[in-house]
Predict the 3D structure of the following.
Amino acid sequence: MAVQEYKCPCCAGAIEFNTQVQKMKCPYCDTEFEMEALLAYDQDLSTDGNDQMDWNSEAAEWQEGETDGMRVYSCQSCGGEIIADENTAATSCPYCDNPVVMMGQFKGALKPEFVIPFKVDKAAAVAGLKNHLMGKKFLPKVFKDQNHLDEVKGVYVPFWLFDSDAEGGVRYRCTRTFTRTEGNYRVTETQYFSVYREGQIAFDHVPVDGSTKMPDDLMESVGPFDFKDAVPFQTAYLAGYLADKYDVQSQDTIDRANQRVKESVDDVFRNTVQGYESVIKEGDNLRLHNATAKYALYPVWVLHTSWNGQNYLFGMNGQTGKFVGNLPCDKSIYWKSFAIVGAITAAIIYAVAWLLFR
């Protein structure tokens, strides 16, 4: 007959029943456990990783005649496909700024269910770039003077939106530390706790970028978008703008959606674990109900600038006006500032030491 072996939650050593204290006790760290608490902990361990996180896509098909006024443009450099209305003339790729060529009538892809219309115009995007450059002390001065704004394009970026009711639990390893003096010794005692939180959370419109052309860090930074402004999609919203054709299927973005759901659940449950000096997540198990994925378009102004032979890509949230983008760094100014701060710090340390030990 197989014998159940229990490991100590504190030090991972094998524990056994101690007849003197009538409890389970670890011979390595001397931690004692009530049998009921140990069985509950073992049950929690057995459920770790038993996730049930499956999603159903609810994207619709285009109806006959809806795409008659839409065209597809293909970038010969990065391979991206861009959707525009039939009045769009020769244009350039909003991602790599190379010329794109018209491929013909748009067809085949799934139809967006929602769209957040542009709330800020092109002039605001240009002004956003100027404001973005202000106050950057490590930015090369010549970048401001010679930086050339090559292109400003309004682009509807494809997103998959995930809705679900999540239930499950998260287990944390927590500690409290006490220090006391015993004779000539200072003794530190650390207590370990296994804390379990369980509950239900509803998620609405968890966004995951459906385009590989738009840099993920840019899209992560330009958000969030407020879904309250979303409306049912109509092709009229594309007039005067471009729309990126999604190249990532909903099922291929599920891992990212699951990661966001797990992080959100952890944040909520972790905030309820109070009174400990350290809280470390050890395991979780989540189950999703009524999990669906919808297709939507979110507005982004994409700006290209060039300087010193390099291209720089910036993005502005077309709903909120939030502006993001990486900038070059003047290394000489950076290291000069670093040296000044280091000198000031050294002078303060020297002054304090002189006052203490004179």
Remarks:
- The first helix runs from residue 35 to 47.
- The chain is about 25% helix and 40% strand.
